[in-house]
Amino acid sequence: MWLESADIPAKAAPVVKQIYSLCLAGNGPTKIARMLAEQQIPTPGTLEYRRTGSTRRYHPGYECRWATNTVAHILENREYTGCLVNFKTEKVSYKVKQSKENPVEKQAIFENHHKAIIDRETWERVQELRKQRKRPNRYDEVGLFSGILFCADCGSVMYQQRYQTDKRRQDCYICGSYKKRTHDCTAHFIRTDLLTAGVTENLRKVTSYAAKHEARFMKLLTEQTEDGSKRRNAARKKELEAAEKRIAELSAIFKRLYEDSVTGRISDERFTELSADYETEQKELKEKAAALHSELSKTLEATANAEKFMKVVRKYTSFEELTPTLLREFMEKIVIHESEALDGKRRGKLRRQEIEIYYSFVGKVELPD
Questions:
Q1: 2-32: buried (b, 16+ CB within 10 Å) or exposed (e) per residue?
Q2: pLDDT computed for residue 86 by the predictor
Q3: Fewer CB within 10 Å: N-end or C-end of the chain?
Q4: Mean of the per-residue pLDDT values of the chain
Q5: Does residue 200 have a pLDDT over 90?
Q6: Is the separation of the CB atoms in 313 and 212 below 8 Å?
């Protein structure tokens, strides 16, 4: 296994990039492993054997047969972003030989340790996609929207369906709960061609506006994000400064009160009464300061996320059609509402259906009229 970018042979780096690109295109580890085997790409164990002679992971006769677990491990390996990760595992007891994986918060991560093969945004996007299970349908295809399409009412993943006759074929998506009858929900039926057209149109509008008015678009994203207003941020900073100043003053008052109590200048009853009031005030101020810190950090995060989204926009200044890679780089999820008849009839021909698009890093984007 290629565990660190610094140890990856030159021939292997393009394979790692290919694996990440295939994942962004909507392919799971099993399908990626099959595709690599079909291309006769040597496995990490085979390359290690050719370089060092080690037979630890080498299987003669299966030099290009990739395992699903190998692909999954490569897709989850943070070290391809250029960082060094220590304390990835720990032993439960010295009596037990087996180790268990440590959560991220227990690991020691050193950024910029070696040259990155995968940029951080791509790695993070792949981790999000890995959480969304995408299985091929019975036609051995992964639907364009599989894994990112959700029902607005029950939150279930939408499933791809295909209705095929001698004359025509129609693809659509329906609510997973409705399909499996696990919850009381409606179909939320939507045709794939209409969904593709609607999503493509919205994406073109957003990317076009962002490319032509980048500064205005960045401001729009931060203001649309909760707590993104500069005016409110300035007021919060003043509030925070005042709260921190008063907290420091109260600490000095506590010290003087204690000295007065020790020297007998004030009675114990008076000391208890005053210190209780000041302690209550200081506690409230500390809670307020913590909340203000949190709100200000959200704004900084919103600006950083807006810049991440703009990187994706600059990467795709124009596109011909909606591809799986394009879709998964731009969008976090799409939420489908049940359609409504415009003429009031239950099975009316004129219907309206709401689609909510949540873009990567920035969520819903509302452009000015």
A1: bebbeebeeebbebbeebbebbbbbbbbebb
A2: 79
A3: C
A4: 82
A5: yes
A6: no
